[in-house]
Design goal:
The chain is of the alpha/beta class. It contains five helices and seven strands. A seven-stranded mixed beta sheet has the order 1-2-7-6-3-5-4, with helices on both faces. A hairpin with a 3-residue loop joins strand 6 and strand 7.
């Protein structure tokens, strides 16, 4: 089957949104296929490691597409001052400080419907972030989040490599 035979999944944010976004906004792409066969369900590019600032925008965006979010699992060592819960849009969202790795956030809808999102580090360049997010939302993705980030991180310039060595 040719690549042109597979139309782009609906409900992905258009690339133009990445040019207009301001610091503090959540950038999200979510796999919208019903099969959910890929390893990751989406990607998120927060602007900082302040979970109380970044998470509300993500939860609001997810709720619009998925319905109410009840829990978020994240690696507390990768975020600043993680509370046990936040009230977002009038709903309590419980935060679980699980060692899932700083490159993944686990989002729960209902009692047992989980979504795994790649977390693109805040200091990532726009081009690398877009590439990582695009890879994460592919329905056939079988690459771990950490490997996606490694593969999309630009090589250091020769001068930086020389200084490090």
């Amino acid at each position: 089957m040719a690549a042109s035979d597979n139309p782009a999944p609906p409900k992905l944010l258009p690339d133009a949104i990445h040019h207009a976004v301001k610091p503090g906004a959540a950038l999200l792409r979510l796999e919208t296929t019903q099969s959910r066969q890929g390893l990751l369900d989406g990607a998120w590019w927060p602007r900082s490691r302040d979970v109380t600032t970044e998470l509300p925008a993500l939860i609001t965006a997810l709720t619009a597409h998925l319905g109410p979010i009840t829990r978020v699992g994240l690696d507390a060592s990768a975020w600043q001052d993680v509370p046990t819960r936040l009230v977002i849009d009038g709903r309590v969202v419980h935060l679980d400080a699980d060692p899932v790795g700083d490159d993944t956030v686990l989002v729960t809808r209902g009692h047992n419907d989980h979504f795994a999102l790649l977390v693109v580090p805040p200091d990532t360049t726009a081009d690398a972030a877009r590439e990582a997010m695009a890879r994460a939302v592919r329905a056939d993705n079988i690459t771990q989040a950490s490997q996606i980030l490694i593969a999309t991180t630009p090589e250091p310039e020769d001068g930086a490599a020389d200084a490090a060595g």
